[in-house]
């Protein structure tokens, strides 16, 4: 079963007394839900707005951005909130307003981050936003500095179609295994097929006595014998058949592997994946290590 939502595990070491205290707080979203469970009650229905409302909201958001650049958080927050009231369906406004609220340790940032995920759950910033929601849920002290450690996501592995893998494996033995990202298996198949073919094509020299009939100059017939040497390939049928059989079996196996891998990738995409990102939290009297799982 896959885990959706965000989980934050924080272990804090406090320097207040001689004994080091350790606390663990876990906040988990509902498995399989589109939003973290804490967001469900915060995000209502999003009603579409008119194009004119979107334009007015963008103008106000531009003024809010200018205020944020010069460090006027109060004005930026108020303007972003005004823009969000006009157009609650704009993810960029929701994200910017959440950042402004988070800068002042205002818990309303969680509401805006949740709205951002509801509007655009597949955004590139979605993972970071889920992590921020988990941190806000911990209600860390305002003087706590959180350092997020970026973790590169595993690159998606492209799996070709089973039909293409099968045909490739028939044309070149082992190609199906190589195109399904198993080069060692492909080399082994190619070597086995090539070995069987080489065995079938090896030749052997055989000597035989041949009797010939001839006529001399006076017209009298006579016979004579000669020794002749010729080459044969006695294992050609067996070798070629074995090579073809190895190629066929390997092509079927590669196509089956590609089919299974594509189905597993589709199931994982449908159910969601689990990823984790470490973080550090520093306070005046504590140091914490966190793991955000979402």
Briefly, what is this?
This protein is of the alpha+beta class and 294 residues long.
The residue fraction in helices comes out at: 40-55%
Q: Shape, please?
A: rod-shaped
As residue ranges, the low-confidence spans are 1-33
Strand order of the largest sheet: 2-1-7-6-3
Binned strand content: 15-25%
Largest sheet: 5 strands, antiparallel
Terminal-residue CA separation: 14 Å
Total E-strand runs:
7
Secondary-structure element order, as H and E?
Answer: EEHHHHHHEHHHEEHEE
| Radius of gyration (Å) | 36 Å
By secondary-structure content and strand pairing, the structural class works out as alpha+beta
Name the CATH class of the largest domain. Mainly Alpha
Taking all residues together, what is the mean pLDDT? 78
CATH architecture of the largest domain, please? Alpha Horseshoe
| Quaternary status | single chain
In DSSP terms (H or I, runs of 4 or more residues), the helix count works out at 10
CATH topology of the largest domain: Serine Threonine Protein Phosphatase 5, Tetratricopeptide repeat
Q: What's the domain count?
A: 2
CATH superfamily of the largest domain: Tetratricopeptide repeat domain
